[in-house]
From TrEMBL:
Classification via Gene3D superfamilies: Peptidoglycan recognition protein-like (3.40.80.10), PGBD-like superfamily/PGBD (1.10.101.10)
Species per Swiss-Prot/TrEMBL record: Nocardiopsis suaedae
Record's protein name: Peptidoglycan-binding domain-containing protein
Family annotation (Pfam families): Amidase_2
Annotated InterPro entries: Amidase/PGRP_sf (IPR036505), Amidase_domain (IPR002502), PGBD-like_sf (IPR036365), PGBDSf (IPR036366), PGRP (IPR015510), PGRP_domain_met/bac (IPR006619)
Family from the record: Belongs to the N-acetylmuramoyl-L-alanine amidase 2 family.
Disordered: annotated segments: 1-26
Amino acid sequence: MVSIVPRSGWGARAPRSRSTTSWSQRRGVTVHYSAGPPGQSVRSIQDFHMDGNGWADIGYNFLVDRSGTAYEGRGWLVVGAHASPYNTSHIGICFIGRDGDATPAAKATIRALYDEANRRAGRTLDKTGHRDLNQTSCPGDDLAAWVRAGMPADDISEGDDMVGLAKGDTGERVKYLQVILMKAGFDLPEFGADGHFGDETAAAVLAARKSQGSEQDFGDRITGWAAAQIMAAFAQAQGH
């Protein structure tokens, strides 16, 4: 499951009103960008939507920042205000930033949210950028091209090189994982990047996941979401 900062975690205001839909009515996921500085807060976006636009709440269902952190907006089944007349049928995910600001970690999280939506819906939903539904430049050329290409896994991040690794594995892919972990601030003091996925590496993997809010209790294998969390920790450590 995707780790998501709840509304209480970013100080959300209470919505003035809300209407809900069902998974049977959800048909797609729509990617947006905020078109503002990547440092803007989720609360500032909510304030603009409620006070500037006069909306009942923040318009998006979810938001994702450059570090790959996901934030709950209106949530999975609350009708958004992001792409009329598709707000009931489509889940809106907003990248916080401008065209070209999206990091591999951010794309990995957007893809993970899309995959989670499919899991909850029990079927494959459409992938759309805002400009695919309305006359707009949103979500910028970079994210629009990525979405239209199908959110390909090989364009998400170098973290894909570590997906599928498990405790006991050896080789260059394990070394890559270990170097990323160390650069993310999770030391391997005994063995370092020795190319062997042992207890020390598993402990560092778990620590990296926990740093991104994961509730999982394993570090002995690298799932797609585990790789996304490790890359998000790496991006944070590098100041991206």
